[in-house]
Amino acid sequence: TAPPAVRRALKTRGNTPKYGLIFHSTFIGRAAAKNKGRISRYLANKCTIASRIDCFSEVPTSVFGDKLREQVEERLAFYETGEPPRKNLEVMKEAVAEASEVVAEVKRKQEKKEKKRKKREKRRLEALAAAAEEMENSVQEPEENDVGPKKKKKKKQQQEPEAESEQEVEENGLEEEALPKKKRKLMAEPDQEEEKKKKKKKAAAARDSEED
């Protein structure tokens, strides 16, 4: 909807207002009464150009805004003193040259930041990989230490029955394979009983000889 001043001017068929909220700008306040309408239109034009530049520029810069502000200042001086301002084409050429330099500098800084970020990320990943390797090595070492003695014990246990079986074979003068543990125990029990009986007989014979 149109502002109240515009509706009122349309109803009364009077002159439409020359400015609205833009009237609060310092540029318009500094202008003379007869130049307020001219400077308000000029200022609105420059604000439109600045908004379009901000919308379509890839890297935002303040170069164009500063140049447009200088143009408004020169136009105010022209209204007061009659000094001719610079042409818009010249000002925009200067602004484009300065803006290209500023954009190049900003891009260089962004590239440096990106390189630093990539380096930090690479170092972080390398540190994580090294930590993971250390953890794996620390887990594998105790496992190896636990497995080593068990293997040795098994070897010892395997060697002991083999040695016993060899001794039994040598004592008996037989060339048979080693018997299992249960059979060895069963065979060892009667031998022990016979040894006990022999000892008892020897003790009895010794007693008889002493009595005689």
From TrEMBL:
* Stretches with biased composition (Acidic residues): 133-146, 161-177
**PROSITE patterns to which the protein is assigned, alphabetical:** NOP
List every stretch annotated Disordered. Answer: 107-212
Q: Which domain of life is it from?
A: Eukaryota
Q: What sequence ranges are listed for the domain Nop?
A: 1-81
Q: What is this protein called?
A: Nucleolar protein 5A
The gene behind this protein is: Nop56_0
- Give an example GO molecular function: snoRNA binding
**Alphabetized SUPFAM superfamilies for the sequence:** Nop domain
Show the GO cellular component annotation of the record: box C/D methylation guide snoRNP complex; small-subunit processome
Q: How does it assemble?
A: Part of a large pre-ribosomal ribonucleoprotein (RNP) complex, that consists of at least 62 ribosomal proteins, 45 nonribosomal proteins and both pre-rRNA and mature rRNA species. Within this complex directly interacts with TCOF1 in an RNA-independent manner. Core component of box C/D small nucleolar ribonucleoprotein (snoRNP) particles; the core proteins SNU13, NOP56, NOP58 and FBL or FBLL1 assemble stepwise onto the snoRNA. Interacts with NOP1 and NOP58. Interacts with NUFIP1, RUVBL1 and RUVBL2; RUVBL1:RUVBL2 seem to bridge the association of NOP56 with NUFIP1.
| Summary of the function given for this chain in its UniProt record | Involved in the early to middle stages of 60S ribosomal subunit biogenesis. Required for the biogenesis of box C/D snoRNAs such U3, U8 and U14 snoRNAs. Part of the small subunit (SSU) processome, first precursor of the small eukaryotic ribosomal subunit. During the assembly of the SSU processome in the nucleolus, many ribosome biogenesis factors, an RNA chaperone and ribosomal proteins associate with the nascent pre-rRNA and work in concert to generate RNA folding, modifications, rearrangements and cleavage as well as targeted degradation of pre-ribosomal RNA by the RNA exosome.
